[in-house]
């Protein structure tokens, strides 16, 4: 899979995250996309609208979201990509 944009990257890496609610996964992809678009910037500076900033902070403060679940999405995606590769 060719990843050409930060949105593509975030979707491919986190789009299948199991966070208990699809809206949480959508927010994760949005936050990751914004941070990738504005590498090195703060969460506030990477967000375009005040609602995005508030949504990102609500996501971070949400006790139902665990870092291990986010990491697991990345591990699963990486495993799938490596499994699909053809080694010579």
UniProtKB/TrEMBL annotation:
InterPro entries documented for this protein: RNaseH-like_sf, TN5-like_N_sf, Transposase_Tn5-like_N
Entry-linked Gene3D superfamilies: Tn5 transposase, domain 1
A Pfam family of this chain: Tnp_DNA_bind
Domain Transposase Tn5-like N-terminal span(s) in chain numbering: 7-65
Name under which the protein is recorded: Transposase Tn5-like N-terminal domain-containing protein
Organism: Photobacterium profundum (strain SS9)
Gene: ISPLU9A
């Amino acid at each position: 899979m060719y990843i050409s944009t930060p949105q593509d990257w975030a979707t491919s890496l986190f789009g299948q995250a199991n966070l208990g609610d699809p809206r949480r996964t959508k927010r994760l992809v949005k936050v990751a996309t914004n941070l990738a678009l504005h590498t090195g910037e703060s969460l506030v500076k990477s967000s375009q609208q005040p609602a995005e900033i508030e949504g990102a902070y609500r996501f971070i403060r949400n006790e139902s979201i665990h870092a291990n679940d986010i990491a697991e999405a990345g591990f699963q995606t990486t495993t799938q990509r490596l499994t699909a590769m053809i080694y010579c």
